[in-house]
Amino acid sequence: MGARLGVAAGNQLGAEAGANVARQGGNAVDACIATNIMAWVAEPYFVSVGGSGFIAVRTPDGTVEVIDGNNTMPLTVPDNAGQGIERIYLDYSNGMYTGIGAGSIGVPGILAAARTAWEQHGKIEWEALFTDAIKAARDGVPFPKTSAYYLSVTWDAIWSKFKAAHDLFSDDQGQPLVEGAVLKQPELAEALELIANKGPDAFYSGELAREITDEIAAGDGFIGFEDLTQYTAEIRAPVSTNAFGWTIESNPPPSVGGAVLVHMLALLDGARFDDPLERLRAIVEAQRAAVGYRLERYQDPGAIAGAFEEALESLRAKSMRSPSTTHASAADADGYACSVTASNGYGSGLVIHGMLMNNTLGEEELNPLGVHRLPPGSRCHSNMSPTIASSPDLTVALGSPGADRIVSAIVQTFLRIAIDGDSLSDAVAAPRAHLDPRRDGELLCYELELPGGELGYTPRHYDEIHMYFGAVQAASVDADGKVDAAFDPRRSGGAVLV
To answer: Domain of 146?
Structure first.
């Protein structure tokens, strides 16, 4: 008898948590949610119950929906733009600025999205989704390589400045944790137990909510109790396109990532892929056009939906004439496929009852109008793009972390599957490129043997596959119910077949 469910995650403990849920009778949606909850424990900084996320679900009848758990601008209006935010420079992702502190925290949404996905599609009890994560938080987890690297470049700028974070992520000598050190999170275990037993209300309107709002107020932030109690996840129809004989469905506006992804794939449909240089040229130029379209025209997330729909209608017509975060994917033999991308931004620095809080309102690339300029209650920008790709013979759930590298990582992995016929494991490990549109000139980053130095951009070559290029996690189910799953070796991932 073959496997009935496959799950891939950004950490091995997460993949095992999803597999354990499957062994108890859970489906792909249950497995993905349990995997994401474990990520709150096992992937510090990149994801948290205090962050955001999106969940794409394909049901056995082929319907795809996206559950929007993105962070929002609080309903409370700050006394002044920039209240409670400290702007810092990070020597990370080729160097960048971001804002931290209590004023950088957007209203968290991933927990509400997880609950909505479970209520709509889950098969086993809510509490079972938390069992492994609670145990791991209490007993301790080996500090992962990716988190250790991130901590090493952000310790002075972020985590050392906040007592709770400093105490949690330092050793007995007050030095930042290194790879393999045991990270115990007893307060997070308590918080997750409350949420498991009492549901999301413990976070959004119960004792945790009071603690969250009190801590934020003490840091000159402005999320109030009403901001948490009124938060809801939204169920949306995906944005989609047809390319290479596949239907690709992803995160719709007001998020921007999925729209850029389908825009890019529509431009690539019919391109030349038999020559390595021309293939790379097509990928880079499609990324440049799709991302450039966004950068030139859109600032307010609330205005993106209609405008991008107009662009996509034009792209669909053309194609008919000319044929940073963490991620988990799961698929089962019944035909469910689930794709979850979640993020904590770069981290605000605040750790409240063991829960890391996001810095979405301080991420400059997500706030093109300037900090705190979004309308109260509006969804923030996001590059997250959980995606479902379907052909007559195969359905693949895939996605990636990596900020503005998310879309290029997903597109290049999909091309390996759709054009080259690669297995999931080969597709997620294949070398990638990304065009970084910097102010001082476009920088083409590329891995291994890709001919990136021949396209005329300023080259940045990586001798090995690198976490800069995201971490695609993929799971699939074919027309006969055969499942597969594969994790990206660029980060500390894992995959399990049950």
So the answer is: 5-234+330-366
CA 399 – CA 258 distance, rounded (Å):
10
Q: Give a yes or no: residue 413 inside a domain.
A: no
pLDDT for 2 equals 82
Residue at 204: amino acid letter: Y
DSSP character string of 346-384: T--S-EETTEEBP-GGG-GGG-TT-TT-SPTTPBPP---
For residue 46, give the 3-state DSSP assignment.
coil
In a domain, 224, yes or no: yes
The 3-state DSSP composition of the chain as helix, strand, coil percent (nearest 5) reads 40, 20, 40
Determine the 3-state secondary structure of 497 from DSSP. strand
Q: Rg for the chain (alpha carbons), in Å?
A: 21
- Assess whether pLDDT exceeds 60 at residue 27: yes
Domain annotation covers residue 400: no
Return d(Cα 43, Cα 147) in angstroms, integer: 7
DSSP secondary structure of 383-423: ----EEEE-SSEEEEEE---GGGHHHHHHHHHHHHHTT---
Across 168-264, the runs of DSSP E, i.e. the strands, are 182-183, 234-236, 239-243, 246-250
Residue 148 CB coordination number (10 Å): 19
CA–CA dist 68, 253 (Å, integer): 10
How many domains in the chain?
1
Produce one character per residue of 58-77: b if its CB has 16 or more CB atoms within 10 Å, e if not: bbeeeebbbbbbbbbbbbbe
CA dihedral 251, 257, 263, 264 (to 10 degrees): -120
Q: Rounded to 10 degrees, what is the CA torsion of 213, 214, 218, 222? A: 20
b/e code 186-204 from CB counts within 10 Å (16+ = b): ebbbbbbbbbbeeebebbb
pLDDT level of residue 305 (50, 70, 90 thresholds): very low
| Dihedrals phi, psi of 97, to nearest 5 degrees | -105, 150
Side-chain half-sphere CA neighbours of 347 within 13 A: 27
- Which residues pair with residue 480 across a beta bridge? none
Q: Is residue 98, in this structure, part of any structural domain at all?
A: yes
pTM over 0.85: yes
pLDDT (mean) for 273-293:
86
The CA-to-CA distance between both ends of the chain, in Å, stands at: 11
Of 60-64, 87-91, 173-177, 419-423, the least confident: 87-91
